[in-house]
Known about the structure:
By secondary structure, the protein is mainly beta. It has a single domain, classed as Immunoglobulin-like (Sandwich). The protein contains 1 helix and 10 strands, in the order E-H-E-E-E-E-E-E-E-E-E. The protein has one helix at 31-34; strands spanning 11-16, 48-55, 59-66, 71-78, 85-93, 101-107, 110-117, 123-129, 132-139, 146-151. The strands form 2 sheets. It has a 6-stranded antiparallel sheet with strand order 1-10-9-8-5-6, with no helix packed on it. Strands 2-3-4-7 form a 4-stranded antiparallel sheet, with no helix packed on it. A hairpin with a 3-residue loop joins strand 2 and strand 3. 36% of the residues are buried.
Amino acid sequence: MKRSRAIAGSAVLAVAGIATMATATTASAAPTAATAAAYNGACGSGYSVVNSVPVTGKGTVYLTYSAKTGKNCAVTVRNSPGKPVYMYTYIAPSDGSSDPVYDSGLYTSYAGPVYLAAKGLCVDWGGTIESVSVSVSGSNCGRMAAGVVTHH
């Protein structure tokens, strides 16, 4: 189902190499790293995580891709499932060639999955948990390795 999105931002942080961003966990990592939301497999078999961005203190948005289908999938996962809270996840082609696809509502553990046929395209994606939002623009598009991460 295609829907429109509306995300208001208050700060923008440019990050080079977002498409190849990785997080390393060490023995000295903060205790919150151990409770970070893990990808839950919601996109289905054949989808592998290609990127992620933390929703500060709340969870993680995962971007996955299936080479077999040529589709990307986004899902926003809470660190600690519990009472239903507002959650949102979206994905869109960066070139605007089709409408963004999103899922939102009151959820106990995750929003999504949402899918976009985007083989060879850069994508914009992100999510919200309660009042904390993140978005990534122009990522995961082959040689282009720069993106913009917005934290709200």
